Amino acid sequence: MKKLLLLTILLNFSSTSAKGIIATITLLKGSGSVLFPGAQHVVPIKKGMKLLEDTSILTNDKTFVKISFLAGGKTSIGANTKIVLVKGGKKKATFVSLLKGQIRANIPKKSGRVHDNLKHKLIIKTRHASLGVRGTEFLTVHNPENHITSMITFKGEVAFVKVKKNLLSTKVEKRILGLMQVDDFDAILDGKDSEVVREGRYSGVIPTKEIATIPTKISPKQYEILKSNVNLDFDNKSEVVSNGEKDKKGTYKTYVDDPPAEGFYDDETGAYAPRSGGYLDIETSIYVQPDPGSKLDKKNNVYILSDQFGGVDEKTGDYIPPEGLSLTASKGFVIKDMTNAEQLRIASKVFGIDVDGILTPKIKRNLKKSLSQMLFVKKAILNNEIRDELLDLEDSDVDGLENIAREFRRALDSIKEVLEVNTSLALGTSSNVTDQAFGQTFKVSNVSSSFLEFDFEIKHNNYLLSNWVSTPYFGFELTKYFSSHENVKSSSLWVFNIGIENKISHGFGDLNIDLEVKKASKLEKNNMFYESFYNVESVKHQSESSFFYQFIEVSVKEKIKIDKWRSVSFGADFKNYDTFSETLNGKQFNYWAELQGRFLPRYELVGKYLVSDRSSKQSIGKTSKTGFSAQFNIYEIYTRFTFRSEFSNFSLKHKDSVVASSKGVEKESTLKFGLDSELGINFSIGLNQEFIKVKSLLNEANYKESKTMVSLNYTY
């Protein structure tokens, strides 16, 4: 405390020699004010004005000022910017304190002057960062509200470092800054925490990180436009927004120390690189990262932010948020206050509906409600991408949004009519031929076989622009068994199904009501090795080669968020079967709990415990099932692949069953793993492997199956 008091006294009584001229205002558009050292009042800024050490400059709206330094080089100041020209001269480095706003500097590497030998010709200091310039062109932005300093280099290199927070007052810190020498700043800028920001790279000093972010490539589209916006004109927008997907400009030079395009965080060192290809918002100084579902521009090794999440102004290069949202310095993305007419205008663009036509009040309400829901999802996704930059961003923005890119895609689909086609082809082997009914597999032969499965399904997501989502569908399944046993002929099974899924979302959770009718075949008869469970049917049903059955399923799910990466879910299902015959009619109850966790954050672990009870009216009897399943998934592998795996182990106990009572307790284990990949916007393909093993008290009831499946999904 004594040392601090002594330092303050020394500063107050230090000599105040005459301030020298260090710069001249060479260009002025707009207005502003200047406070000269020792003056009590500001004066209007004027072209040709000579600027002394410790001169403060404040610009107004729609203002641009260009300053030429006596030592060489030029600096442009944008609108609503405040700087202090701390010191400088012909033979000295120029020190500038940026209190808020934007500075664009162009410092030549060689000017033929004595100070060409200086390590840093221009040093810019904000409250939290320092920039050292030798010969380069760059843009730096500082927002005092969120304490973020960002910079982009257009030419050459800039040394960039975060200044550790100290306990000195702003006034004392300013005086100390004036006393610091070039060597002092050179030592800071050349320290181990300093970053060298090269052409086309962004780096930021943000409150949540101890050091400046690793320089990362920004959007090529924004980079080229910002580079040409030498007058820092961010007011006269062109109202043309582009995300650069169709017009990729610029080619970046690659350096060996460039971080990976997907970014990284080193928990041990604190080194952090955001995802490449993002946009810098000039007013807030926030770097908006591309969403996890963004495409990779392989030419420049950067991601392209989806146009659903904003773009850049074609004239100024500034970031433009999605319609209906605004980006604030402290709260991140927020939903704008809009009139009914503005909401309907945006809804017409998003949903493709002509609002100039006659719309009933109910349709208008649904449109505005759906727009509000979609804007909330966008806001949550975008805020999740800038969480690393803002200290006080509320957790509520991302609650309930797991698997973020897919969550937005679902929300976007929920306001459109979507046709979805799913098809799969599987080849496998089994230890005995199988037949399925009433939700459980019956073993009807003790002869091993190979089989070929083909599934086809069409869904029409005829969404109702509300919390109630209705999806009709139809499809068919065909299974062909091939056996080499001389007394067992090849057999086939087929199933046609039609149904409708209904999902109702409310604050308490999700309610699903599904209705389905199937027409299924039986295994071919007159085969001495088959023991069909249909033998317990009536004579009429034994003579039929196929049968109908229908079921109704009702399920309820509630999800509780533990934190950003972990959640717990609970659910209950009820199914009612009706096969139009007394024997197979039945019902089933499932109760389950699930724990889901994300880490790193593309990796996911899911654990689930399930209890199930099934019963039929007559001879099939009752079956109870208990056990667990565990999933391990990896998302965004090389931006387009997803790895999924699951292991389950269940215990099945048969009770009061004419067909299954002698089997006692069965153990059923399943192992699945697969790889999914997106093929463009509409297609996705999957390759999956599955192993099933059932262990029974009866050896002839033991069952094994191995299946390899290729699936294709098309969404229109």
Query: What is the number of domains?
Result: 3
What is Rg?
A: 34 Å
Number of helices: 8
CATH superfamily of the largest domain: monomeric porin ompg
Given helix and strand content, the structural type is mainly beta
Mean pLDDT: 77
The biggest beta sheet is recorded as: 17 strands, mixed
Number of strands: 44
Named CATH architecture of the largest domain: Beta Barrel
Q: What is the name of the CATH topology of the largest domain?
A: Porin
CATH top level of the largest domain is Mainly Beta
Show unreliable segments: 1-17, 167-179, 391-408, 436-442, 525-542
Shape: elongated
Distance between the termini: 70 Å
The helix content, as a percent range, equals 10-25%
Beta-strand residue fraction: over 45%
InterPro entries: FecR
Signal peptide: 1-18
Keywords: Signal
Protein name: FecR protein domain-containing protein
Record the SSE blueprint.
Layout lengths: L1 H11 L8 E9 L2 E4 L7 E2 L5 E3 L2 E5 L4 E6 L4 E4 L4 E8 L2 E16 L14 E4 L3 E5 L2 E8 L4 E8 L1 E6 L7 H10 L2 H8 L5 E4 L2 E5 L10 E2 L2 H9 L12 E2 L21 E2 L6 E2 L5 E2 L6 E2 L6 E3 L4 E3 L6 E3 L5 E2 L4 E4 L3 E4 L4 H12 L9 H25 L18 H10 L3 E14 L3 E4 L2 E4 L5 E14 L5 E15 L8 E16 L2 E13 L17 H5 L2 E16 L4 E13 L7 E14 L3 E14 L5 E16 L3 E15 L9 E15 L3 E13 L7 E13 L1
Helix pairs in contact: 5-6, 6-7
Overall description:
The protein is mostly beta strands. It is 13% helix and 47% strand. The chain is built from 8 helices and 44 strands. α5 crosses α6 and α6 (361-385) runs antiparallel to α7 (404-413). The longest helix has 25 residues, at 361-385. The chain starts with a helix and ends with a strand. InterPro entries: FecR (IPR006860). It holds the Pfam family FecR. It comes from Halobacteriovorax marinus. Residues 57-158 form the FecR protein domain.
